[in-house]
Amino acid sequence: MLSKKIYPLILIAAAFNTQAATINFDALQPFNDYDPILAGYGSTADVTVSYSSLNPDGSVAYADVLLWNDGYANLNTAAFAHTSGLLLSIKLTAVNPNQSVTLNSFDVAAYPTGAVNSTLTASDFRVVDGNDFSNILVNYGPYEVSRFAAQTFSPNLTARSLNIILGTDWNNGINNINFTVAAVPLPGAVWLFGTALAGLGLTRKTRKV
Fold first, then answer.
1. Is 100 helix (H, G, I), strand (E, B) or coil?
2. Cα–Cα distance between 183 and 142 in angstroms, integer?
3. What is the per-residue burial (b if ≥16 Cβ within 10 Å, else e) of 17-35?
4. Are 168 and 195 members of one domain?
5. How far apart are CA 48 and CA 192, in angstroms?
6. Looking at the structure, do residues 7 and 80 belong to the same domain, yes or no?
7. pLDDT digit string (tens) for 25-77?
């Protein structure tokens, strides 16, 4: 049986617990090229994932993005905007207000058919606040995306909601989106944790006397 003094430490540690997940479109196979991604695919109990194809001003043109089998460099599958000229949007939003999402990494690659150059420009490539399209958290674009090998990006951004933007050429695709969800530390939680540890240590010391 655990000591009653251990329970507060367990509860405090649980507040800092994190859970990781990866959105991999390979798991949706078999599918036909140009099939839309199922709404909410990749969502967890703590994170809602939504897909859309946006106009350059951020307004929704289509409430989906499309799938492709092999062809985007060395990715087995990829997601891309509904039509060329639009922006792929993949939004990750924490379900509970006391949680946050960390976007750890994702892979981007270009489609090589008919290509003269080894890269394809992603003119608009960024991660923005999921609640404010104009709030750019990291800006990668314009970026020359490889047609032969997927490139991994690791923004390591944390917010209540994050939105990956990739465009405007639909020959740029994405896969393997890795994210983590964690509880937002309560005010003074770190101090409380330290105090609890100190109190436990003091109790042990007192018992030795």
1. strand
2. 34
3. eeeebebebeeeeebeeee
4. no
5. 31
6. no
7. 999 999 999 999 999 999 999 999 999 999 999 999 999 999 999 999 999 99
Query: 1 in helix, strand or coil?
Result: coil
Task: Evaluate whether 104 touches 202 at the Cβ level (below 8 Å).
Answer: no
Backbone angles phi, psi at 73, to 5 degrees: 50, -130
CA–CA separation, 53 and 66 (whole Å): 9
Same structural domain, 69 and 2? no
Query: Does 137 share its domain with 205?
Result: no
Q: Which range of residues forms the domain containing residue 119?
A: 18-184
43: burial class by Cβ within 10 Å (0-12, 13-18, 19+)?
middle
How confident is the model over 3-32, as pLDDT tens digits? 544 444 444 444 456 789 999 999 999 999
Residues 3 and 63 in one domain: no
Residues 6+ apart with CB under 8 A from 123: 141, 142, 167, 168, 169
